[in-house]
């Protein structure tokens, strides 16, 4: 069901304009992905009513927020907004910041209650502290909780982890994952990190120069072309599977997806959990036979769906393969593709190192 409708045009400067036409899911996480200057933040600010656009039509579940003849001010839009910086009130404790949001909340609706927010974001030990006593990750968790306690119909998140170092990002990502599974409202999440997109996003919109160049389910978009590579990052795919076995002796978990199995380094998951993994094309090799004398644990029978010339390097190719309905990409030399005589429809073995799979 696509109930978040966004159609707008905005002349941002003499050499940049935003022109977007989107119908997005009314729950789950939609990532807005692209280079700096592609229009991501401008789009979010227009949706929030913080910037006006010349021609616009924005509505959620039939409730129109703006059109060419109608404009709902930002403070009347049922939106929670999380910025790159936490922007907490410095004179209030963490609890005081949350209480401020509760006073502004729509009393007629409850997407999440106070106790659930505290538990979900792990805030109980932080409530009596002031912002200057908190780490950057802790401040951002308070900011996210504050945005939720407004009881919004839409949550906007503008690169909420960009101000954090890598260790703090890894600390806060599990909280964001829990949040995304818990709240039943649409979340628009800006990022230029493919790791965050794969961890969090159900739907992906890629912007370039103010225009949408690709959109759809995250797994489909990342697997249909070298999208991430074109954005200056390693081409990657998303593999989503269920944990069916754990080997504590070797520290490995076995995932089941599309009638295939895959072994990865064990994390916090338990048997029965769904796990989303990032597999980079540079960590996938191709074999014509299912050889057993290899150190690579994951050797998946796949069909070649497409061979694509690497737009960044004429000496390499992207090979798109299908493991059931799950796309897998391999970045190999054009010489290897020729020597193996690779072609569309060919049955081959995709080899993926367990140690190389990312979360």
TrEMBL record:
The UniProt record lists the keyword Acyltransferase: no
Domain ABC transporter positions: 1-234
Keywords carried by this UniProt record: ATP-binding, Cell inner membrane, Cell membrane, Kinase, Membrane, Molybdenum, Nucleotide-binding, Serine/threonine-protein kinase, Transferase, Translocase, Transport
One GO MF term attached to the UniProt entry: protein serine/threonine kinase activity
Domain Mop as annotated: residue spans: 293-359
Pfam families: ABC_tran, TOBE
Coiled-coil residue spans: none
Entries under SUPFAM superfamilies matching the protein: MOP-like, P-loop containing nucleoside triphosphate hydrolases
Record InterPro entries: AAA+_ATPase (IPR003593), ABC_transporter-like_ATP-bd (IPR003439), ABC_transporter-like_CS (IPR017871), Mo/tungstate-bd_C_term_dom (IPR008995), ModC_ABC_ATP-bd (IPR011868), Molybdenum_import_ModC (IPR050334), Mop_domain (IPR004606), P-loop_NTPase (IPR027417)
PANTHER family: ABC TRANSPORTER I FAMILY MEMBER 10 (PTHR43514), MOLYBDENUM IMPORT ATP-BINDING PROTEIN MODC 2 (PTHR43514:SF10)
Protein name (Swiss-Prot/TrEMBL): Molybdenum ABC transporter ATP-binding protein
């Amino acid at each position: 069901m696509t109930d978040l409708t966004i159609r707008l045009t905005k002349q941002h400067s003499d050499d940049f304009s935003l022109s977007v036409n989107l119908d997005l899911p009314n729950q789950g996480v939609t990532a807005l992905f692209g280079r700096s200057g592609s229009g991501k933040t401008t789009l979010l600010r227009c949706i929030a009513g913080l910037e006006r656009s010349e021609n616009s039509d924005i509505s959620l579940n039939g409730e129109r927020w703006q059109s060419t003849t109608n404009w709902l001010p930002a403070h009347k839009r049922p939106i929670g907004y999380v910025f790159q910086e936490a922007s907490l009130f410095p004179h209030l404790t963490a609890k005081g910041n949350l209480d401020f949001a509760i006073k502004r909340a729509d009393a007629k609706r409850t997407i999440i209650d106070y106790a659930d927010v505290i538990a979900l974001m792990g805030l109980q030990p932080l409530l009596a502290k002031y912002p200057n006593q908190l780490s950057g990750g802790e401040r951002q968790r308070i900011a996210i909780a504050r945005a939720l306690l407004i009881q919004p119909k839409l949550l906007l998140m503008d690169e909420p982890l960009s101000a954090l170092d890598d260790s703090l990002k890894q600390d806060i990502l599990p909280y964001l994952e829990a949040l995304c599974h818990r709240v039943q409202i649409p979340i628009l999440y800006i990022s230029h990190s493919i790791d965050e997109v794969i961890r969090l996003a159900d739907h992906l919109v890629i912007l370039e120069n103010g225009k949408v160049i690709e959109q759809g389910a995250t797994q489909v978009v990342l697997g249909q072309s070298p999208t991430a590579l074109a954005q200056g990052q390693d081409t990657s795919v998303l593999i989503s599977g269920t944990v069916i076995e754990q080997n504590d002796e070797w520290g490995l978990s076995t995932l089941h997806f599309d009638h295939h199995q895959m072994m990865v380094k064990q994390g916090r998951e338990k048997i029965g959990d769904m796990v989303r993994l990032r597999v980079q094309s540079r960590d996938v090799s191709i074999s014509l036979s299912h050889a057993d004398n290899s150190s690579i644990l994951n050797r998946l029978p796949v069909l070649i769906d497409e061979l694509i010339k690497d737009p960044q390097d004429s000496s390499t190719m992207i090979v798109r393969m299908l493991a059931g309905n799950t796309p897998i990409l391999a970045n190999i030399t054009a010489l290897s593709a020729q020597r193996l005589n690779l072609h569309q429809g060919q049955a081959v073995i995709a080899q993926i190192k367990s140690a190389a799979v990312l979360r």
